[in-house]
DNA sequence: CTGTTAGCGCTTTCAC
DNA sequence: GTGAAAGCGCTAACAG
């Protein structure tokens, strides 16, 4: 076994003394099954020569691939990783290869990747993550999404409505509203909200849902502060809030990483959680379940959402929207004395 | 724009009134550059028809792709996500598409994925994560690695030596030894080690390095308990240790997630950290930097390691081994009163 | 059941 | 500079 030697089907066929058609049939399960004896010969030849089918050639010949794409903003963000994981598991079960692209939150990259997937003739793709509401990039994305769909590939979006494709929606509003009610039930009254960028639908929905939940009890938040949808965003937002000196007794961050960033800032400032200030997040990120005090949050079936997204994407058909329920998880960060 | 309509280069060429050769040359920068006027015509035609090159066909024709693969055990594990992120960034810069596979810690899957990447004629691949030392699966992996390399593709391994490919090694032993020394310097004396499976080289090296570091001060651990290389593994291991009642005053878990799992168990048992027991980990996982008390650990330049791995993989050449230094990060979890 | 043969869409000599 | 044509490796009719 030395130096590159591209063994082709023809090589195998010749060595086995059969036609390429026969070789193809036995090696890649086809319609008609050759006689046992030939099967043996072909398999043996393939084995001896160390034959590996050229997926590119196969794809070209039957104009269809077993590749699916996943687009996430940032694979290091545990939220995306969890959903992507679900997609990958489902893909693995179906023997599909996954092309994963981290767009680093750049709309242009996202569009370019989608185009690449189209060029690769991917069977389907799953786009994860809330889109910005910025009209222009939204239009450009929509256009590329149209082309993608038009190429015959399947597509499912997670946390992003408004596109003519299958959509998986976490019930952000209802979940946040339920959380608000539970917190009020616990006795908290003066709430502050750490929102995300206003262009992110997910962040907006969670904030609005929370406000709606408070309204159910005739309450209004004492403050709303927006920041990036990240750990640092939460850290900075709570500091601004503290500096402004609003008298909140409980703060809701629109996602867990922001909440954790906020908790860190509070610790630095010497504010006790939940003694002086209760803190709640959203997502129930697995990696953060061990933080202390345990973070009250709203659990989303992230992996399942990913699985389902892949199923819908490869299934195709008319655009569907499926909503996944969120579930409030009360922990120590909002425990009342 | 209706129903699937595969626009080919031929369509574009005809519409522009040129040959496919010319169309190819202008659309995919080639050797000879056609006259400006033709370029315009071809580009216009391509635009109007909404032409997208078929990557499969291109790959077949020039027998080379711009696809690279990444193999990780579990993309939800922040350690792997961080390295994979580095690989993806480097890939993105080079305009390479990434095929990411999560092997779910299954050796067979890993081998199968490598074979798939070979079938896809991937340009290169990066395998991340310590290999088990189980002789049989090691041999089978080695065999597939051989085939992969033999196909002309590049390969780099992260945290796994012993294969005839480029290798990126975090300096686990030295890092753990340095940590041990620092802890001793802080005044800790009775150490317990929460090791990983003995078949994982990474886990072994960290444990051994730590022991060596202790030995430098003439110390020996009071106990060594092994568990899975996961959050739950750390949680269970510390509980067994506690039940056995070894009188340790500081415990070193061979990775951060184990350490966090252990801290959680300690909290449940009412053991104060670092008051009653100091805790240290390894990796300095970003997502865990906000846990409280802040976890003393050993930082590895995860993203950089990933970047470098990709560079080596696509560069090819003689197998190299590059070692990345680890750096001790002291935090509150091992602070002495 | 098995072999022939025409493509799949694009790149790349090799002539013009 | 530009085009004709021969593949790249495999699949899928279509004949035997």
From TrEMBL, chains A, B:
Residues 7-62 form the HTH lacI-type domain. The lineage of its organism: Bacteria, Bacillati, Actinomycetota, Actinomycetes, Propionibacteriales. The keyword Ribonucleoprotein does not apply. The keyword Nucleotide-binding does not apply. GO terms for molecular function: DNA-binding transcription factor activity; transcription cis-regulatory region binding. SMART domains: HTH_LACI. InterPro entries: HTH_LacI (IPR000843), Lambda_DNA-bd_dom_sf (IPR010982), Peripla_BP/Lac1_sug-bd_dom (IPR001761), Peripla_BP_I (IPR028082). Keywords: DNA-binding, Transcription, Transcription regulation. Coiled coil: none annotated. PANTHER family: LACI-RELATED TRANSCRIPTIONAL REPRESSOR, LACTOSE OPERON REPRESSOR. It comes from the Bacteria. Signal peptide: none annotated. Gene3D superfamilies: 3.40.50.2300, lambda repressor-like DNA-binding domains. It comes from Kribbella sandramycini. This is LacI family DNA-binding transcriptional regulator.
């Amino acid at each position: 076994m030395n130096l590159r030697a591209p063994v082709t089907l023809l090589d195998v066929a010749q060595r086995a003394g059969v036609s390429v058609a026969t070789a193809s049939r036995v090696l890649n399960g086809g319609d008609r099954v050759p006689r046992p004896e030939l099967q043996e010969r072909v398999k043996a030849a393939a084995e001896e020569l160390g034959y590996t089918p050229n997926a590119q050639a196969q794809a070209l010949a039957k104009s269809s691939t077993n590749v699916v794409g996943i687009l996430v903003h940032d694979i290091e963000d545990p939220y995306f990783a969890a959903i992507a994981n679900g997609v990958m598991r489902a893909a693995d079960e179906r023997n599909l290869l996954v092309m994963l692209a981290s767009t680093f939150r750049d709309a242009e990259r996202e569009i370019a990747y989608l185009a690449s997937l189209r060029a690769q003739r991917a069977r389907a793709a799953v786009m994860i993550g809330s889109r910005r509401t910025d009209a222009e990039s939204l239009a450009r994305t929509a256009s590329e999404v149209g082309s993608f769909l038009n190429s015959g590939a399947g597509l499912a979006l997670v946390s992003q409505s408004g596109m003519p494709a299958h959509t998986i929606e976490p019930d952000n509003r209802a979940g946040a509203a339920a959380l608000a009610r539970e917190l009020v039930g616990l006795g908290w009254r003066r709430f502050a909200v750490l929102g995300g960028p206003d262009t992110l639908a997910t962040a907006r929905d969670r904030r609005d849902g929370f406000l709606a939940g408070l309204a159910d009890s005739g309450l209004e938040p004492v403050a709303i502060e927006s920041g990036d949808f990240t750990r640092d965003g939460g850290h900075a937002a709570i500091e601004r809030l503290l500096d402004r000196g609003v008298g909140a007794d409980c703060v809701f961050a629109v996602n867990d990483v922001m909440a954790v960033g906020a908790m860190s800032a509070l610790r630095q400032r010497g504010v006790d959680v939940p003694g002086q200030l209760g803190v709640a997040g959203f997502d129930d990120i697995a990696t953060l379940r061990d933080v202390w005090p345990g973070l009250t949050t709203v659990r989303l079936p992230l992996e399942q959402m990913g699985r389902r997204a892949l199923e819908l994407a490869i299934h195709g058909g008319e655009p569907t929207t499926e909503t996944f329920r969120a579930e409030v998880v009360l922990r120590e960060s909002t425990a009342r004395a």
